[in-house]
Amino acid sequence: MKSSVTLSLVNEARGGPFVYWSDVREACKEAKALGFTGIEVFAPGPEAFAKSEAAKIASDHGLKIAALGTGGGWVLHQWTLTSPEEKVRTNARDFIARMIEAGAPFGAPAIIGSLQGRHSEAVDQAKAHAYLEEALIYLSQKAKSVGTVLLFEPLNRYESNLIRTVEEGMVLISKVGESGSLKLLCDLFHMNIEETNIAEALRKCGAMVGHVHLADSNRKPAGLGHTDFQPIAAALKDIAYQGFISAEALPLPDSSKAAKHTIDCFNRYFKG
What are phi and psi of 117, to 5 degrees? Predict the structure, then answer.
C-alpha cells in the first residue's frame, strides 16, 4: 500500500478536510520529507490543475499524483449529476470528464464525491439513481478510453442520500457494468458512520476497492479519534489492496502536524 496526503487549491473550500492548502511546492517538499509517496489534489478544475504545475512539482519531489478530486464543480458552481436541470447535469458530467482527461497522463484517477448530488422533491430517488447510472456509464467509458479508472465515493447520510455504504456502491457498479474502469473510493470517515463493521465491508468489496481515504472517526488525522486501524489494515491486506491510503482529514492542529500524525499511522498499520 502507498501513502498519500491531500492538497486543496480551492480557497472557497477552506475549512474542509484537506491536510495542505494552496502552496503546492511547500506541500510536496514536506510530504516527501515525511515519507509520503503521493499527493491527492483537489483543484478548481482541470485548467487550474495544469496551471498549478502540481504534477511537475510532485514529480520533482519524487511523488505521484494519487488522484484528482472533482468537488470543485460543486463548491464553485453547484453542479451535480442528479440535478433536476439537464444543463447542470451536463455541466457536472463534462467537468468530471475533463478532470479524467487531466489526470490520465499521470495515472491519477478522478474522484466523484459531492458531485453525485442527492434525491429530493424535485428529483425522486428512482430518477436520481437513473441519472447517476447514466452519467457513470459515460464517465467510466471515458476513463477506460484514456487508460485510467474512475473512483466513486459513497458518502455518509449527512452529505448525501444516494449511495451511503460500500455495499450500495457495489450494487451501483454492477448496474453500470464497468467494474474494470469504475472502482470504489472507501473513505474511512464515512464508513465509520455508515458501516456496521468497516473491515468486513472492505473484505466484501474486495477488488472493487480502488482508493482509500484515511481519517479518524472525528475527521481529524488518523490517531486523533477512536478508530481501530488494526482490523482495517488487516482487511486491506487480505484483499491484496495495493493502492493509495490517502489522508483526507482536517488540518488539525495544523497542516504539518496533521501530516505527521497521518504518516505515523500509515507506517504503523498500513506500510508494507
Answer: 80, -150
* Prediction pTM value: 0.95
State residue 219 phi and psi, 5-degree precision: 75, 0
Instruction: Report whether 65 contacts 54 (CB < 8 A).
Output: yes
Q: What percent of the chain has pLDDT over 70?
A: 99
Quick one: average pLDDT of 205-216? 97
DSSP code of 218? T
- Virtual torsion, Cα 127, 133, 138, 141, nearest 10 deg: -170
Whether 218 shows a pLDDT value over 80: the answer reads yes
Return d(Cα 33, Cα 30) in angstroms, integer.
5
What is the chain's mean pLDDT, rounded?
A: 96
Average pLDDT over residues 243-253: 97
Helix boundaries (H) for 146-254 = 166-176, 188-194, 198-205, 229-238
Average pLDDT on 29-41 reads 98
Query: How do the domains of the chain map onto residue ranges?
Result: 2-270
Q: What is the CATH number of domain 2-270?
A: 3.20.20.150
Nine-digit cell at 44?
Answer: 478548481
DSSP 3-state of 190:
helix
- The partner residues of 222 in beta bridges, in order of sequence, read none
